[in-house]
Amino acid sequence: MDEIRTELLSSKGIGSVLFLDETDRKKIIEFEREDELNGSIVCGKKNNAGIRQVLDCDVMMGFLTNNEFQWPTNHIKVMHGDKLIGEDVCDPLDLQEYRDDHEYCVLGNIVILYEEFLKGNSSNDPIYMVINAHPFPSIEVVSGISGALIASPSRASDEYMRSLSQEDKMLHVGSFLLGFNLKPLEYASSLVAAPLKSSVY
Question: CB within 8 A of 70, min separation 6: which ones?
Fold first, then answer.
């Protein structure tokens, strides 16, 4: 696991790596279930598909990020039925253009078609948010690892991970959960210093 930690810390913008055990996994599952039940005040029901994928991996870790981390694009989708009505935008210049355009509603870094946003909030079929996982192949240089993914945790899971870190919380602006699988021939290797998945979300 030290090899994985070294690879993560060599990635730009990652400031703290957290080894999560089975107790941590169970707590995060509880936080994520509660978050989906509560949903988003603005964007209705949440479907954090990314977290489900990460929690289904053999091994799960966490890491905290600073301003230099390259956040994944197409991370969040806002849906009304089967129709895509909004998504996250990372580029500050693009965000400003959307703010200046009255056809769009900008909430943080999420851009939504304003008319569709109003329709969704006033209909019996409300809007909802889908949060995706993203491939994270940079650690797959470590022998025995495959299918590495990262996903954004809920606020409660983020705060929990920050509480586990010994570093200054003010240095970090975000967090991700990392999941990966172990290739069958590598299960007995010294790579596995964290427990394998036993809880299913």
Answer: 12, 13
Which residues touch 120 (CB under 8 Å, ≥6 apart)?
44, 80, 85, 126, 127
Whether the Cβ atoms of residue 151 and residue 48 lie closer than 8 Å to each other: yes
Taking the C-alpha atoms of residue 40 and residue 104, their distance in angstroms, rounded to an integer, is 19
Single-letter amino acid, residue 47: N
The candidate with the shortest Cα–Cα distance to 167, out of 64, 24, 57, is: 64
Q: Any idea where the domains of the chain sit in the sequence?
A: 2-75+132-186
pLDDT of residue 143: 86
Q: List the beta bridge partners of residue 87.
A: 77, 111
- Unique residue bearing structure tokens 């596995």: 192
Phi, psi (deg, nearest 5) at residue 106:
-110, 120
Length of the chain: 201
DSSP annotation of 194 = S
CA angle 37, 198, 19 (to 5 degrees): 85
Along the chain (201 residues), what's the average pLDDT of each consecutive run of 10 residues?
88 91 93 86 81 93 91 87 90 92 90 86 80 91 91 93 78 87 65 53 55
Quick one: which of 97, 134, 105, 133 has its CA closest to 43? 105
Taking the C-alpha atoms of residue 68 and residue 23, their distance in angstroms, rounded to an integer, is 31
Q: How far apart are CA 198 and CA 54, in angstroms?
A: 13
